[in-house]
Amino acid sequence: MVLYHGGKDVVEFPEIRKALYHKDFYFGFYCTKLPEQAKRWATRYGTSGVLNCYEYTPDNKLKYLVFDEMTEEWLDFIVHCRSGKSHTYDIVEGPMADDTIYNYIQNYIDGKISRAAFWELAKFSHPTHQISFHTISALDTLKYVGSEEVYGNKK
């Protein structure tokens, strides 16, 4: 399977970096099977970016968590991770909390909306996908195959 990572730079050797903010599935190297989504990641600041491509080969020795869709378990896991709590999975895959969903999740965490209100708002979101790699062994499942410069619509 081909996976894509959008960013500012060519990433021939993926790394797990601690960042200022916790992400959906905690700190990790994030990819997607949707090239258009990776292009949006790469150009989100209104400048050109890089679409990196990897061949992904799953390894059954690793510990996986897969969410096929947004579920109660998915929401609880994202709230857990975004609260700064780690997990023990090598690879986590599932829907992405895009900017809109992120705001709904933050409002839910902050107590501004109820769980029921979150689900009512979230049902109108478009399909997304992310797969995050959280250990060196997980990163070993990726083989860099190339990259290309991409351009956003913002000026």
TrEMBL record:
Q: Name one Pfam family in it.
A: DUF3990
Q: Which InterPro entries match?
A: DUF3990
Task: Quote the protein name from its UniProt record.
Answer: DUF3990 domain-containing protein
Q: Which organism is it from?
A: Blautia segnis
Its taxonomic path starts at: Bacteria, Bacillati, Bacillota, Clostridia, Lachnospirales
